[in-house]
Design goal:
This protein has 185 residues and is an alpha/beta fold. It contains 4 helices and 7 strands; from the N terminus they run αβααββββαββ.
């Protein structure tokens, strides 16, 4: 097997300078992230480029050694995984390229308006649920299990630029739910 073929499987070698993504940012969309979120994106990108690419290339090499590729399920699976990894690499490079770091709010606005990066406590007025506290983050970092909700989510949109004590309405498939903003930090 030629070395050129292996280079095709593993992709180009990373350059010593900063790598430029192959995807252009024609739509001008910004990816809103915290410093921690950007670090996680860069770590995932590095893992995909240095470890996962090589693992898949090795799997492809092994599957090719089995012979007939037309009925080789290992080969098909490895090619699909390679396509997924390459797509994810392009997606991460684009997000990193268009990243806008969410900075801590100044003390002047802290605790007044809900912004990206704010910790907001809300009380569901429609039911007897307990108060919940969320951090408003960009869509890339959203993780409801860690109580981080996107500024693009229904609740995130409803509370943005609102203040403590305001009541917001959130449309849901089962009807509109009212929340009271009880705390902004």
């Amino acid at each position: 097997m030629s070395d050129d073929f292996l280079t095709d499987l593993t992709g180009p070698e990373p350059s010593s300078g900063g790598s430029q993504p192959a995807v252009s940012d024609d739509d001008g969309e910004e990816t809103l992230v915290t410093k921690e979120g950007l670090k996680k994106l860069k770590e995932e990108l590095e893992l995909l480029k240095t470890v996962r690419r090589k693992e898949v290339a090795q799997r492809l090499k092994e599957a090719i050694s089995y012979g007939d590729l037309s009925e080789n399920s290992e080969y098909e699976e490895a090619k699909n995984e390679q396509a997924f990894i390459e797509g994810r690499i392009l997606e991460l490079e684009q997000k990193i390229k268009s990243a806008k770091i969410i900075t801590e709010k100044t003390t002047l606005t802290k605790g007044k308006d809900v912004n990206i990066g704010s910790h907001v406590s809300i009380k569901n007025l429609t039911s007897d649920e307990e108060e919940e506290t969320y951090t408003i983050v960009g869509a890339t970092e959203a993780d409801p299990f860690e109580f981080k909700i996107s500024n693009e989510s229904p609740i995130g949109k409803a509370v943005l630029m609102r203040r403590r004590g305001e009541i917001v309405e959130v449309p849901t498939p089962s009807g509109t739910i009212q929340y009271e903003i009880t705390k902004v930090a």
